[in-house]
Amino acid sequence: MSQIVDGKLYQAGSTRSCAVKLVVTESHISIIQDGAEYGAHNLNSISLSDAIPGVATEVRFENGDMFIPNDKSWRVQRQTGSLLSTLESHKVSVFASIILAPLLIYWLIMVAMPALASKSVDWLPPSVPNYMGEQSFTILEKAFLEPSELDEPTQQHIEQLFSNATTALNLDKQRYQIFTYQSAYFGANALALPDGTVIVTDDLITQLREYNENKLDSMLMAIILHEIGHVEGKHGMRLVAQSLSNAIVFALLFGDLETVGELFVGASSTLVQASFSRNMESEADDFALQHLAELGYSPSAFADAMDSFDANGSGDFLKYLSSHPAIKERIEKAKRFK
Known about the structure:
Layout lengths: L2 E8 L6 E8 L3 E6 L2 E7 L4 E2 L10 E2 L5 E4 L13 H6 L2 H31 L5 H17 L2 E2 L4 H17 L8 E6 L7 E3 L4 E5 H11 L3 H17 L2 H20 L3 H8 L1 H7 L4 H15 L7 H13 L14 H10 L2
Parallel strand pairs: 9-11
Antiparallel strand pairs: 1-2, 1-7, 2-3, 3-4, 5-6, 6-7, 8-9, 10-11
Helix pairs in contact: 2-7, 3-9, 4-6, 6-10, 6-11, 7-8, 7-9, 11-12
C-alpha cells in the first residue's frame, strides 16, 4: 500500500521550490516531478518534523532537500515521531495534558523548587548572606527606620541581654548584632536579617513595658531568641532562594529569561518585603522555646510576649509578616511546651 501526496520540494541550498508528488511505500519514498522520478530514498533515512495539528509535516532527505505537503493534515504512515507528536495526536493525551500541566507547574512551584532552594542555601558561602543582610539593612535604614529615642541605659541593657544570649548559645559575636530603632511603619516589632543583624523597635520595648515591666527581660529574650532562630534557620535566604527559583520556573515556561537577572539585582528588596512562611515561624518559635530554659527563663516568657501583642491588638507578631501562625495558637503552644 502506498501514499501519494502533492507538495513542494525545496532543494538543498536554495529557496526556490518546484511542485512534485511524493510516493510513499512501506520501505521507500520516491519524488515524482513532471511524471518522472526525480529521486528515491529509503524511508528510514528521512527525518520528519513534529506532528503539530494545523502545521504541515516537513520531510527532510539525507541530501538536504526538503518536501512540504500541500495537505497540512498529511502524515507519513511510518511516522511515530517524538513523544510530543504522539501526545498531540491523541485526544486523551491532549485532554490529560490540560489537566496535568497546571498540576506539574503547581508541584514545581510549591514542592520541588522550594525544596531545592532550601537545600541550595546550605551550599552558599558566608559572603552571600552577609551581602544580602547589608543591602537589606541599608534599604530599611533609608526607608523605614529612624534613630532610637530610648534612653542610653535602656539601649545598653538590650545590648547586654543580646550579648548574654549569643554567649550562652556559643554564637559568633562578630556576626550577630542588635540595633534599636524608632519606626512608624513597623510599630512594635522585631526582625532579623540573614547576616545576623537583629532589629527591635522602640514601640516594642514600650509595649512590653506596658504589658508587664517586671517581665520585660524574659519577654524580650523570648523575642530575641525567636529572631536568632530565623537567622540560624537561614529563613531569609531560603525566602530569597524560593522567590528566585519560582521566577526562573516562570521565565523558562514563558521564555522571559531577561527578568531573572533583574530579580537577582533586586533580591535584597525582595527580602525586605517578604513574609516568613508558617513553617519558618514555627521553627523560630521552637528555637526560642528550646533555648529559653538554657538561659534561665521559663517558656511561659514566650507566651507572655505573644500575649502582649494580643492585648495590644497587634494581631500578628510582625506587622509586615502576613503568614504567621495565629497569636493564640502560639500562646497555647508555649504554655504546653516542656
